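Consider this pair:
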Amino acid sequence: MISIIVAEKFNGSCLCGAIRYCIEGDADRFYHCHCSRCRKATGTGHASNLLMARPVSVEWLTGEKNLRSYKVADAKRFATVFCGTCGSPLPRVAPDNSMAVIPAGSLDSLPSVSPQARIFYDSRMPWTCCGQELPTYSRYPD
C-alpha cells in the first residue's frame, strides 16, 4: 500500500500587514512553550508554535526585505524571525531546511492541528494562564 501525504498550506502575516507568507508542509506538532527564551521573545507567558518537519516550501509573498532575525549565541535551536516594522513573530526555517517553526498567532486561519502539549512547563511563570480558572470576556471588559 502506498500512502500519500498531502502537504498543508499555511498563510499568515504580521500585525502591520507588511509581510505575508505561505508555507507548505506537514505541521504535526503544536506546542505551547513556557521556556524563558520564548517568554522573552513573545512578551507573554508562552509561545504557541506549530512545528513542521521538512517544509515543502516557504514563500514570502510580500515584505521579505522587512524580515529581521535574532539568534541567541549559545542556543543550538533558538532563533526568532520578526517584522522589522511591527515586531510580530514570523515563521523560521532551519538553515538545513530540516524543520520550520510557525508562530500560531501569525496564521490567517485556523490550523488543522490543535495544541498537543505545554513544553518546558516547569519554567512557567506563576501568573501564566493554564486553564479556565479566570473569567472570560468576548471583548475588552468595562
